[in-house]
Design goal:
91 residues; mainly alpha; 6 helices; elongated
């Protein structure tokens, strides 16, 4: 843990002081919790959500084999579309 100093305006200090007394904790603890919720909780929640999706389609039988599916997505006629229209007419 590292030590740091914060400058708080009077209204914020009073609110934190009141809340800390009510919860029987310190202003430092309140600030640490608030910072953790604001800057770390989202990452943890996103990681948990992503983990919940892992393997969700593993038992699907209606999908083609992975290699076949990827190749079908990659099939493209871009070169044909980019050719000069006059060249296509001659063929």
């Amino acid at each position: 843990m590292r030590r740091t100093q914060l400058y708080l305006d009077d209204d914020l200090w009073k609110a934190l002081h009141t809340h800390a007394r009510r919860e029987k904790t310190t202003i430092s603890d309140l600030v640490r919790r608030a910072a953790r919720e604001r800057y770390l909780a989202g990452k943890e929640d996103r990681a948990k959500a992503m983990q919940a999706w892992v393997g969700i389609w593993k038992d699907r039988t209606d999908l083609p084999e992975t290699e076949e599916y990827v190749r079908s997505l990659r099939h493209d006629n871009r070169l044909e579309r980019l050719r000069d229209p006059r060249d296509r007419e001659e063929k």
